[in-house]
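REQUEST
  id: r-88c1
  op: predict_structure
  target: DEAD/DEAH box helicase
  payload:
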Amino acid sequence: MLTDYHSKYLASDLVRRRSSDSSDKLAIAVAGAQVDMNPHQVDAALFAFASPLSKGALLADEVGLGKTIEAGLVISQRWAEGKRRVLIIAPSNLRKQWYQEMNEKFFIPCSIIESKSYNAAIKAGDFRPFDMNGSVVICSYQFARNKAADVHSTPWDLVVIDEAHRLRNVYKPSNVIANTLKTALAERHKLLLTATPLQNSLLELFGLVSFIDEHTFGDLKSFREQFANLSQERTFEILRDRLKPVCHRTLRRQVTAYVPYTKRHAILEEFSPDEAEDRLYNLVTDYLQRDNLQALPASQRSLMTLVLRKLLASSTFAIAGALTSISNRLQKRLDQSRPTSLLEELDEDYEALDETAEEWSDDEIEPLTEADQRVLEHEIIELREFAELATSIDQNAKGRALLQALEVGFAKARELGADEKAIIFTESRRTQSYLLRVLADSPFADRIVLFNGTNTDDQSKAIYREWVSRHEGSDRVTGSRTADMRSALVDYFREQGRIMIATEAGAEGINLQFCSMVVNYDLPWNPQRIEQRIGRCHRYGQKHDVVVVNFLNRKNEADQRVYQLLSEKFELFEGVFGASDEVLGAIESGVDFEKRIAGIYQQCRQTAEIKSAFDELQLELTLEINEAMSHARRKLLENFDDEVREKLKMRNADTNLHLSQFEQQLMKLAAHELDGDADFIDSSSFRLNAVPNWLSGEGVPTGLYELPRRTGDAHLFRVNHPLGQAIVARAQSRDLPVAEIAFNYSGHKGRISQIELLKGQSGWLAASMLSVEALGQSEDHLLLAGTTDDGTTLSAEATSRLMTIAGGVTGSATQPNAITTVLAQSLAEQQAHIRRDISERNARFFEIEANKLDGWADDLKVGLERELKELDRQIKEARRAATLAQTLEDKLAGQKAVKALETERSNKRRSLFDAQDKIDEQRAVLIAQIEGKLEQSAETKPLFTIRWSVK
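RESPONSE
  id: r-88c1
  status: 200
  body:
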């Protein structure tokens, strides 16, 4: 049995704040996360914390290594420290994925903020919608840029930026989003995530690093001058050393000991559209290629054309609905009633419209002229004819091809030993309904589940009701219908389903490692979106190779070239890893690439035109995938494989040791505090039968608790669970009198030599908590001082191990003054030693920061000195020209030119010295700011004193 003294000691140790470079710093975050932790992820998270003086880090692990998990660990740790103003900026189509990961894996509340929720908050009187101290805020790049003033005024503890290569051209004034965000986030601690930190130019590294900390390098000119010539090995070494404190990169080949990878296999199902489908395609295509269209607002024409082309390629059912919506909207405009937004009209047809539109222009309704009115009347008639033709087609060739593709795909899955499960992706909800009808009349009719943005169909509702009933009272039920509906449908697909038909919007952020077949019924033109789709199944935890099925229209030259580009250039459908970093990173934004493809469809009519346009696009991609930059990235950012593997091996051992100790301590603490209220099944699970009297019960359900969670219906027990928090608070708050404790070493499993020597002896022990604040961060240290009755001082290991031995209180005790003095002196010596260690560690951090500022100051001076060298060169040339002059007039003019340049050089020298002095003053100010943070403040809080004996 443990005592209240053990309990207070354990609770204090569990939640004490660790130093930034401590290997057990992440114990709370790791133990509280529902993820299989890999050592490279822990290593990356600790790198992000390495120095308290750091302004942030660039985590650049290769694709597929879990940068979201790494960021989740950093966020969890900040959260545990009470630093809860966290902003995540991500591409719009990744917002839901972040929301799911933070909620389901780290149990951290999140809110996605976009125009609708922002405006609703303002309307409700909340004029600081970004300032949610109890929730992580997630928004898109575009929204953060548009609300830059709000972003700037919020005192963020941490800002995480995903797909950060979008910021790599921040040094160019033309990159408005990057520059706006850099200004808005200048003083905040930032974590940048990208697999492609260096793509086409070293200046991209300069841009990303300066986004984090503008004092790492000088200005752009000095960076160019110093690092333009990378043929010299010394230049590489200098740049590598400057990047080392801020950039961290791990490669997939370095982690194969921990992360098993499976392959992708591509299946291409070709089809030929029927005559009526062909006619519809040509009619709509000709219509969309007209110079002037009343149906599509000028400011949104390219976006709406893209959407209509995607719906046309999806199914006749999808385009029929869209054509009807547009013609009805035009009729309202003709009748002079204000029509609804075209975006709202088409959202029903094309579910990913919100995310796509985020990065396109806003709608504008132009006034109608008489000429426009005649065109409008004609367009309405045409659109209704197109819609009528589309509605008359009740079978699609691609729909028939799907049945053949499923047979081939399932055969391949059986060959690979995988379950026969397939997820079919479509970009249209109407096509989703059509596919359900197609499959209902086929051998694949059973066990189909739909997944979209609303899931209002009867089957989804029934699955949801059954799931809520089954998990009632467990942590699985969040209370959010949207989140719980998603979980219910995924669980059904895992346990009973065979085929899931999903729209783009519905499938964001779900993990389907149990499914090994992805069917792209509609193929996006955005490579990042395709990778995201396939990544639902081909991800960590997938045990089988994944089959990827695509469809190709034999009659469409542009479709064939798009597929070729995605397959051969982007390598999306085959291989072990899917799309490579080099290739995906070449396109900065998938939406921009999508616009390029849409432009070709819109402008090119003949096969030769289409071929030429795609050849040009392919050549551009080839040029951007630069071999020289790949070489530079390897030398600058990648460490030797053996060096990394050895480091990860040690990190793995450390993490597992600390995690095991942490979990054991937490379960021991729970066993003591819940005595009589819970049945402990084993060392990692218990059943809470009743809510204890000392607990209000709010947010603390009864039932099975596990650490780690192994069964779906159990609660994950963790320090940050309401029950864990209540237990720790109760143990820590006890005011414990001096007491006698008999430690039962005889009943302890295993041998502890330090305690064995104490058997039959007795003495005194005092515990206190030292809290130190320096460099803007706090850390806590548990101090234990012990002595035997014969005056022998116990070692630190002996005192800490003693507190792991069970025992019982045998009575009260009175502490002699002499013992009080001895223990106080021992505690004071420990405190002095710890404070000295902290001071030495902070001195190292200070040195790193001072070296960085020295480099920054030297860079700026290099730029100034370069201007003087240029003037020296001009003066030499002017003197040579004056000497060679043939006439007196020319010689005098030459001498005047020399004199003018010399005067300019003298002025420049004076300004150079002034500028250098100014740089040194700035450096001194920055150093003084750091020195101000070095000052330590310390507080010691007594925990308890005991009279001990060991039997």
